Amino acid sequence: MYVYDDYDRQILTDRVKQYRGQTDRYLKGELSENEFLPLRLQNGLYIQRLAPMLRVCVPYGMLNTKQIRKLAELSRKYDKGYVHFSTRQNVQFNWPALEHVPEMLKELAEVEMHAIQTSGNCIRNTTTDQFAGVSPDEHEDPRAYCEIIRQWSTFHPEFAFLPRKFKMAVCGSTDDRAAIRVHDIAIEIVKDANGEVGFRMLVGGGLGRTPVVAPVIKDFLPKQHLLSYLEAVLRVYNQMGRRDNKYKARIKILVRAMGVEAFSEAVEAEWAHLKDGPATLHEEEFQRMKSFFTAPQYKQLDNEESLSAVQAQRAEDIAFDKWVSRSVRTHKVAGYSSVTLSTKPTGVAPGDVTDKQLEQLADLADEFSFSEMRTTHSQNCVLADVETTELYALWKKAKAIGLATPNVGFLTDMICCPGGDYCALANAKSIPVAEAIQRRFDNIDYLHDLGPIDLNISGCMNACGHHHVGHIGILGVDKKGEEFYQVMLGGNSGLNTSLAKVLGPSFKAEEVSDVIAKILTTFTQLRNDEELFIDTYRRVGIKPFKESVYA
C-alpha cells in the first residue's frame, strides 16, 4: 500500500492544525454555523440526526493493522465502541463530540489516515475491487491508478467546489465487483489489440433520485492521458453543471441534458487544450506508484496439496464447508486464497464492527494475511492473501469473533445504509427492516438453496444503500409522516448493470419480510434447476412477482 513521505505528513499535520483552529473559533462563537459548514465538511464531519458523524477515508479500501488498531482505539475513546463500513469503502464514526474531532484527526494522521474530501462537493474516495492485485481475472492491478487519482484530486484547487459530490471507481478485472457503472466516472482498465494498457471511460452514472447506468464516452484512452482526460471531464462538468438545483446538479443530469455525443465532443474540445500538457503521466511515475503495490513475500506452495488438504477438512466439517463455499475465493498465486469476512450475522447492523472485533481483525490480518485488510463496497472486509492450508484455522478464529457467517453473496449479506436511526436525510429507518429480514431468513440451508441474491436497502432517495442495483431493492419513503417501503426488482451492479423496477405500491415496515417471502417463493417456483434469482427475473419479468405479492 502507499506509504506517506515527509511532504504528505507535513500536509496532514498542517491540515489538522488548521482545522483545530477553525473548530476552536466556532466553539467560541467567532465563526457562524454557515461559515463553519464548508470547513467541517472538508474534513469529513457531518451533523447527523443525533450527533456529528466523522467519515474517514480508506483509499481503495486498504488498511494495515496499525491503522485498524487506531480505528478501534478511537472508537473506544471518542465514540461508542464501534465503527461502520460504508459503501465507498470508508469508515464512519457515528457519535464523536465536535470538540474531540481535531484530536481524532491528529491521531489518524499519526497512522497516515485522514477525513479530507470524504464529504462536500468535491472528488470523493476512489473505490475499486476488493480483490485488486490478487484476482486471477485481472488485466492489471488498479490500485496504482487509484492512488494516482487520489494524489491528483486531493486539494485540487479547481475542483474543491464542484456543482455536487463526485465519485469515481476503477476496475481492472473482467468482472465488475465495485459497481463502477453507477459512478460519476467509471474507469475500466482494458488492453488494445497490441496489448497496450489503457482505459475505457464511462461518464454520467449514478444512483439517487435519477439512477443512471454510465454510458461509454471513450473506448480506449492511452494510460499516459488519464489525468488530462479526467481534468477535461471535470472542467466541462464544473463549467456547465447546474448549481441552481442540487437535485439536478450531478454530472449524470448534464450528460443526459446534453446527450452523450455532445458531452463527449465538449470533453474532447477541452482535452485538446490539456492533452500532452503538464498532467501527462510518464512511465517512471507509473512505475514509482506501482512500487507501492508489489506482491508480499509469498511462499512457494503446492496448490494441489493445499486444495486436497482443505477438501478433506470440508468433508469432515459441514459448517466449514459452507463457509468456504461462500467466503473463500481463488487467488492468482498457487497455495493462497482470498477470504471475505461477513459483518452481517443476524441482529447486527450491516457494516457495523466493534472496537474489539477491529482489534481481533488486526490480529487475524497479522497472523494470516501479511498485516493488511480491505473494506468492500458491500460493507464486508477481506483478508486477501491467506495460505489455503490455513483456512480452517482462520475460520475457527473468525467464527469465535462473529465474522464467519457463511452468507456472503446471499440474501442476508445485504447492503444497508444507516437510515433514520442516524441519518438526518433519511425518510425511514433501514436497520430494523434489515434485521427483520435477517431474522426471517436466518436458515443458512434455505439461503444456500436460494443461491446468490443481492438485497439492498436505502432509507431515502439518496440511495446510499444502492437499492437501485439490488436484485431486490428496498427504499424507505415518507407518507404524511409515516414510514413506508417501496420494493423493486431486477437491479444488478455487475458487468451487466441494470436498474431495478418498482414492484408496485409500498408497504409498512412489518409487511416487508412477508413481501420478500412471497418474492422468494415465486422465484423458487419459476426457476430452472440452479438458475440464479437475477436470471429468473430477466427471463420471466416482473409480472409473476407482482401477481404473487399483490394477490
Low-confidence stretches: none
What percent of the residues sit in helical stretches (DSSP H or I)? 25-40%
Distance between the termini: 54 Å
Strand content: 15-25%
The domain count comes to 4
| Integer-rounded radius of gyration | 23 Å
CATH class call of the largest domain: Alpha Beta
Strands, count: 21
**Mean of pLDDT:** 96
* CATH topology grouping of the largest domain: Sulfite Reductase Hemoprotein, domain 1
Structural class: alpha+beta
Q: Could you characterize what this model shows?
A:
37% of the residues lie in helices and 17% in strands. The strands form four sheets. Strands 16, 17, 18, 19, 20 and 21 form a six-stranded mixed β-sheet that branches. Strands 1-2-5-4-13 form a five-stranded antiparallel β-sheet. A five-stranded antiparallel β-sheet has the order 3-14-15-12-11. It is built from 18 helices and 21 strands. It folds into four domains: 6-110, Sulfite Reductase Hemoprotein, domain 2; 134-290, 2-Layer Sandwich (Sulfite Reductase Hemoprotein, domain 1); 303-401, Alpha-Beta Complex (Sulfite Reductase Hemoprotein, domain 2), CATH 3.90.480; 415-550, Sulfite Reductase Hemoprotein, domain 1. The protein has 551 residues and is α+β, with helices and mostly antiparallel strands. The longest helix is centred in the N-terminal third of the chain and has 22 residues, at 6-27.
